[in-house]
Design goal:
heterodimer; A: three-stranded antiparallel beta sheet; two-stranded antiparallel ribbon; 5 strands; 34% helix; B: Cytochrome Bc1 Complex, Chain D, domain 2; 2 domains; 0% strand; elongated
């Protein structure tokens, strides 16, 4: 009798386990499921050989080097990376992302072009940061355009003023954002 | 004989209980009413959050049930949700609930409350929005725009936000 009870109990446990499994398999999450689960500690975006060959530089230092080099579009410009190594970068690959990438200056940051877009009638400061040519033209374009690159003098530029002096930009910057922005992988050793 | 003894024992026990109960009750009344000892009578005594208090910070390394929305400082996130009919349809429903009031049903920035706003809501069919990547729009929905647009990350789950992005993409067509 005891053995029979035991067998019945085990069967019941197995059945209920199967039921629970079916229940979980049939559950559909409300809304669109998320296809990619990002792990809690994501691997570094660039590591291994990429990290060894690339240079690490603060965003503001990179901008400063580009402006000081005369803001070249296609020619390379030199900069000193965070470890003191001489490196060179290019506008399209290294500088433009600072303006058109979201979530780069700090966690959840909006991209600069979100507000400084091509439609000058609604762009803030009538400034368009989407292309090289527009960057060179500057702000307040519906009146008399104002250079934002300080004519090649970084500390005299509008970019320096809003990023370093007043810290007005990037919009919504958290108080704990490093003074010179995030450490980025950019350029290549010279 | 045994019965009488048993009854006596029970009587004594009952008397003892009554006396102890009486003493206990008087003690309780004195401590609670007279001395004012705070007994654990309410849940407020335990560590808890009062109304309007900030909630506890999320522990380091936690991942939301729906998955992390993006990698911090990892650049513009890529759209992981295919812009199929189902996603766009869901996006439209969510858009009409959460966005149309300001941005208008057609996304022209002419919603019913737009006239009351000093800075007009963005025209989602204009070049300033169509020129953005999907991830940029996702980030605006997630974070809002300081001073202009509220963050909708608590209103829309991660997947819902991508659905809205997929729908917003169809507005300009």
């Amino acid at each position: 009798m005891k053995k029979l009870t035991l067998v019945v109990l085990i069967l019941a446990a197995l059945l209920s386990a199967c039921n629970a499994q079916n229940l979980i398999a049939n559950m559909s999450p409300y809304g669109t499921p998320i296809p990619t689960l990002i792990p809690a500690t994501p691997v570094a975006a660039q590591s291994g050989s990429a990290a060894q060959s690339g240079c690490s530089v603060r965003a503001v230092d990179l901008l400063a080097a580009w402006v000081s080099a005369g803001s070249p579009e296609n020619d390379p410009f030199e900069f000193t990376d965070d470890n003191g190594a001489r490196c060179q970068g290019f506008f399209a690959a290294d500088v433009l992302p600072l303006f058109n990438q979201s979530n780069l200056w700090f966690k959840g940051a909006l991209s600069c072009v979100t507000c400084h877009g091509p439609d000058l009638n609604i762009s803030y400061a009538q400034l368009n940061l989407t292309t090289y040519a527009d960057l060179r033209v500057g702000s307040r374009r519906l009146a008399e355009s104002k250079d934002i690159l300080g004519g090649g003098q970084w500390e005299a530029s509008k970019l320096y003023e809003v990023l370093v002096t007043t810290r007005f930009m990037p919009l919504g910057r958290p108080v704990d954002m490093p003074e010179k922005g995030p450490l980025l992988k950019a350029g290549a050793p010279k | 004989m045994i019965d009488t003894q048993f009854v006596t024992v029970v009587k004594r026990l009952a008397l003892l209980l009554i006396v102890l109960g009486g003493v206990g009750a008087v003690g309780l009344v004195i401590t609670y009413e007279v001395i004012g000892v705070e007994w654990l009578s309410t849940m407020e005594v335990q560590e808890s959050l009062r109304p309007m208090e900030l909630s506890l910070p999320v522990p380091q390394g936690s991942v939301p049930l729906q998955g992390a929305a993006y990698v911090a400082e990892g650049g513009t996130p890529l759209n992981p949700v295919e812009a199929d009919q189902v996603s766009r349809q869901r996006g439209q429903q969510l858009y009409e609930i959460n966005c149309a009031l300001c941005h208008g049903a057609g996304g022209q920035g002419d919603g019913s409350v737009a006239a009351k706003l000093r800075r007009k809501p963005a025209n989602l069919t204009g070049p300033n929005v169509t020129g953005l990547q999907d991830g940029d729009i996702f980030m605006v929905i997630t974070q809002g725009v300081p001073g202009l647009m509220p963050a909708l990350r608590e209103n829309l789950a991660v997947g819902d936000r991508w659905d809205v992005v997929n729908y917003v993409r169809t507005l300009a067509k």
